[in-house]
Prior knowledge:
Elements: H1 5-20, H2 23-30, H3 34-56, H4 66-92, H5 95-102, H6 105-117, H7 122-140, H8 152-177, H9 183-201, H10 211-235, H11 241-247, H12 250-263, H13 269-287, H14 298-305
Amino acid sequence: MNMTERQQGAVTLAAGGLLMGTLGIFIEEARLGALTLVFFRCLFGFLALFAYCAWKGFFARRYFTRRTVMLAVLSGVLMVTQWVWFFDAIHRTSIAVATVVFHVQPFWVVLIGAALFNERLGIDRLSWIATAFVGLVLASGVVATDNLQGHTSYLIGIGEALAGSVLYASVTLIAKSLGDLRPHLLTLAQCLVGVVCLPFIAPLAAAHISPQQWFWLVGMGVLHTGLSYVLIYGALPKLTTPVIAVLLFVYPLTAIAVDAVVYGRALSPAQLAGMALIVAASLGVNLGWPLLSAILPRGSASRHAD
């Protein structure tokens, strides 16, 4: 039985999310510092995406205006920094915790967008965002930590994941302002920024990388930056917002399962509850679900929305 275009898009997006959910294994098993990991992710990701874009004929001259190039470079600086922070956060916390904390980034998009474009959020969206950040506190595991002074590295990791989510939200807003620029080209530019800039920031000891480590590095670039982005970008135009909102959580849920199965680091019940709140809040914001407006009197809800 042939699948419809929408079904193909759903399967493709889910496959991209499942693949991205295994990224943490490659980060952990490569056993290298975050800067080195990101450099090689950018290098092999650039090569994979360059080949794909050339094959598809994406290198149209109309995409390479001065404004487009400047915004692409800016997004590259933000994205590469975000990758470094996120990878280091995984080293300091765990795959599951760093991934869950990072996935509050859609709420930063809403808040930053509202601040920049003077948009009214409304009582429901504000309530869902507040719910998400309650979930963040629970999911981070901070509330279960009795002595924070003995967990400095862990707290730094939480901060890195959270800061990375803000940078990713900024990249998302830049991408929206680029109009019809193919997202493959934007990711290609971001990888190029990493390849060019990171060697000036930290020395890369490639001579001491073992053959096994090269396997994880190449895989991280080709699979998690090349193939996964091609799958995700190819699926999004075929799907409606509700389907996308649901399927985007395949990535963090897979990461949680991978961390538990491969490394035995299962989230606590409180952390899982926090993740559930983040998922519910994300769906509420994206799908326009009522929350407080369904409880408050209509006049009261309207005053709060103003």
